[in-house]
Amino acid sequence: xxxxxxxxxxxxxxxxxxxxxxxxxxxxxxxxxxxxxxxxxxxxxxxxxxxxxxxxxxxxxxxxxxxxxxxxxxxxxxxxxxxxxxxxxxxxxxxxxxxxxxxxxxxxxxxxxxxxxxxxxxxxxxxxxxxxxxxxxxxxxxx
Length: 143
Description:
Elements: H1 3-29, E1 45-51, H2 56-63, E2 72-79, E3 85-88, E4 100-103, H3 108-140
Antiparallel strand pairs: 1-2, 3-4
Helix pairs in contact: 1-3
């Protein structure tokens, strides 16, 4: 695998973690949203990451053992199916007939753990990118 390929893989990881952190920020921002444009409370959104698809030539190189992987990409964004939290608040405009309000299924502590994990993955990919860039610069200076 060439150094350019290694940089592409690091960039794909950086991009995937950037999207993940944006989704986490959206989840935290909507932690108290009881009414969305689709009706009902906000549902937590989660990224689905998968290995980046390879071209035919890359698949052939992989089969010959010349290449291992193609990086990562956000394949889809899904809504968390966990049930909503219900609190008793009869005066709230979104309360049901019994006085219960459905709150989003966003757990702040879980979001903070996910954010920390995503930040570490982002930093690891930046470090790998910078190390690869340094190797390329050092290679160019060899005489």
